[in-house]
Amino acid sequence: MAVDRVRKNTPPEINARIDREIAGSLRYFAAQDSFEITKRIYELETEWDVERMLEANAAALGMTGLVLGVFRDRRWLILPGLVLPFLLQHAVQGWCPPLEVLRRLGFRTRREIDREKYALKVLRGDFANFTSVAGAPPGERAEAALRAADVWNG
Question: pTM of the entire structure?
């Protein structure tokens, strides 16, 4: 799997846990029918990635600090003063302190989510080039689908 900035700045044990969870999900769905796979794909399409969660949290904390600073006590303005540099640091370096917390909570990168989604599409039979996985046992199908998704993910 290609390395993105978030994975590069995430401790290896967290990346490994996320990869194991993806593989486990694929092993489970390799034994399911197309309907169940399709339901999971829809779930993945609405899953919030770590970037979206980071942005939403930064916006919420920044706005909260701004509103409280204007209407309650100016000292609350320190909150957006702390949050905004973290957001800038993440934009420039691909890392900021809240990122590790979000990753430990299980938030995945868009690429990780898409990896699972495209592997599920391979299992479902969406791609003619990967029909060779159709008759294999579930474990082999899951591994082949994951390899195919890795080819797609570059």
Answer: 0.88
